């Protein structure tokens, strides 16, 4: 196959990337790995790249973000190329559909509606437009359209938001806190008296209501848990470093020693951030 000059034109923009993808998938001259892929095998990479974008933003790693956004864009190009080969649609159809959707959902920017609205009113209008779109797609139920393959924590959050739109919601966070106490008691009972299936069911109920509490507090649970995961990773690495300075690995230490080092690390971080621990607020080593 003669080389397309677009491939080596660094200023060719989107068309260059599309041509690279076409070449990678060419049955005769492309990359064997890329040729073998399908929607199902690429989907996990798409999800992974989206999380890497979120991670770069969370760390404010702006130099990395450029590359991560490129990786995510490439996933869209990959899926669109496979769709075009199968006769479903092409990349330009994706662009057109997205552009049409944004124009339709922002009549106060691209239409005749007034921009003189609160953010709350704009959110309400946005949801009304989306509800009309779901109706056009013959989605009857309030929960229709919440993707089943979302991460479970994120899907719980979206399901609850959808239910709340039609009035199925706790009045305020105090009711959710009471429900957490109830679910925790049921989990305690399940631990002592029920089988593994029932235990998983009760544990899921507790997680679900904790997600609900986050929603009432204005906290996105997926983001909150990512933040806590990062904090745990950072602090445990410091514990490992202090053990290494003593010539030991964690498996050569004791729970008491690691717990003490964890408290030291936590105290130092709080002091550096001007955050003093509350009286009686000492937590276990594995908690935030």
Automatic annotation (TrEMBL):
Location of region: Disordered: 247-288
Top-level taxon: Bacteria
Keyword terms of this UniProt record: Hydrolase
Example GO molecular function: nucleoside triphosphate diphosphatase activity
Positions with biased composition (Basic and acidic residues): 263-272
Gene3D superfamilies in alphabetical order: MazG-like
Pfam short name (any one): MazG
Residue ranges of domain NTP pyrophosphohydrolase MazG-like in the record: 37-110, 176-236
The EC number(s) this enzyme carries: 3.6.1.9
Name of the protein described by the UniProt record: Nucleoside triphosphate pyrophosphohydrolase
Lineage: Bacteria, Pseudomonadati, Pseudomonadota, Alphaproteobacteria, Rhodobacterales
